[in-house]
Amino acid sequence: MGRGGDPMAGSDNTSAFTRAFGRQLKLFRERAGLTQAELGARVGYSADQIASVECGRRIPKPDLIDKADEVLSAGGILKTMKEQAALARYPAFFRDAAQIEAEAVEMHVYDTHVINGLLQTDDYANAMFVLRRPLLGQEIIDQGVAARLARQTVFSANPAPIMSFVMEESVLRKPYGGRKVLRGQLEQLLLIGEKRNVEIQVMPTAREDNAGIDGPFTLMVPKKGEQVAYLEGQGRGILITDREEVRSIAVRYGIIRAQALNPRESLDLIEGMLGEL
């Protein structure tokens, strides 16, 4: 998932939600007798940003929703739309997976092309969207980066989920966004890899036997439910719930982990790569 919801997000459902929220915000603002500039000043946003939300061009951030609800005495009506606003940041194909990811008690990831979205720095995530073809507008890029980084709150969940990541060595050598961006990304991997609930492993390029030849995937165990698998590529995502198919992918992941470097060896390799930059 670096996968993990690229924001070609202008689906009909998203547009309908942003327009509906914008109308509600405008209604409460006018009832309070405030201009867009006055509301913006009170909630810490510019008049243009308020206008964009009211017109349905911008997906409201949770912070804006909370502050606007309080400033406009909306009685919690705007706040009730926070969950829908959070999901609206993702393309339709990723929303079900995003809900499961946010509440998962276990997550196991294999990546072959880019570093997983849950591990990306701000700069690396930005590069992922800037490099897209056709080119994306800056507002879409900003929304995509914000949505991707927001997913990383999973690391601070209590209790923390059990997480493991296996990535191909070649992924760690691709200087997307430049060498400085890659350096920052590798440093972040070292920090995350030291977390007690996270294990990061690298699959060496020189491995002659690699069970991951079918491509990347994510396995997730919901808080209440059975393990599911998620596959993503070329702007499409598939959530797999069939028990036998998920079991097959889980078995494959076990073999991939056995073939990869162990977590300590992997972090040592990443540290060595940093020394080469």
* Beta-strand content: 5-15%
Task: Please report the number of helical segments.
Answer: 12
Shape: elongated
Strand order of the largest sheet: 3-2-1-4-5-6
Rg on CA atoms, Å: 20 Å
Oligomer type: single chain
Name the helicity range: 40-55%
- Quantity of strands, as a count: 6
Main structural class: alpha/beta
Strand and helix map with partners:
Layout (H helix, E strand, L loop, with lengths): L11 H20 L4 H8 L3 H8 L7 H10 L10 H7 L3 H12 L2 E6 L10 H9 L7 H13 L11 E7 H4 L6 H15 L4 E6 L13 E5 L6 E6 L2 E5 L2 H17 L3 H14 L1
Parallel strand pairs: 1-2, 2-3
Antiparallel strand pairs: 1-4, 4-5, 5-6
Fold and architecture overview:
The chain has helices spanning 12-31, 36-43, 47-54, 62-71, 82-88, 92-103, 122-130, 138-150, 169-172, 179-193, 243-259, 263-276, and strands at residues 106-111, 162-168, 198-203, 217-221, 228-233, 236-240. A hairpin with a 2-residue loop joins strand 5 and strand 6. A six-stranded mixed beta sheet has the order 3-2-1-4-5-6, sandwiched between helices. 49% of the residues lie in helices and 13% in strands. It is elongated. It has twelve helices and six strands. With 277 residues, it is of the alpha/beta class.
